[in-house]
Amino acid sequence: MINVYSDVNQTALKYLKDTKANICNVLVITGNFNIRDSSWDPLFYFHLIHSDLLSDIANSLDLLLSNSTNQVPTRYLDNVNDTNSIIDLMFLRPNYSEIDNHTIHPKLQYSSDHTLLTVNISIIKKFVTDKQYTIIKNSKEKDKFIAELIEAIKKINTKQLIDKDSLELTVQEFANKVIWYKHLKCINITKHSKAW
Hints:
Layout: E1 2-5, H1 11-19, E2 28-32, H2 49-60, E3 64-65, E4 88-92, E5 99-105, E6 116-121, E7 131-134, H3 140-154, H4 164-177, E8 185-188
Parallel strand pairs: 1-2
Antiparallel strand pairs: 2-4, 3-4, 5-6, 7-8
């Protein structure tokens, strides 16, 4: 997720344009982009060049402008002569089932002149194993397994390897001789376990 504040000079957009090649696997870009445009603000009748740059950046990251579940302004001004606007936006990964459209919360702006934007991200239940079978590093089991492996390799008759079929047969026989699973030990996976 990338949270953006782009000032009136669009400094953040220029930075994102120059660094987008180094950004990957982004699911959400959101923030105050300081761009009014007819593409997302029905009370604004003009199309600005900065919105094209923003769309290009989002497209390069495989993101699309999210439609809010409620079409209300995201910035509310105290001055009655100025109109409220939509300048806070959210770009989401299309066709990504875990992420839904965003919602604008005008009642949660508190002392800010901007509202809160939220998106629901579904967390899919997934079975995570807490046990793993492995040959323990620097153990007697590891030494026995390597010794058996070396003996089995020494006994391979390479003279009979004359074609693909004989190679596959030899590999299968080798796999059947090396009984690695008898050296395995069941260990509990904890937050301190190493990934490797």
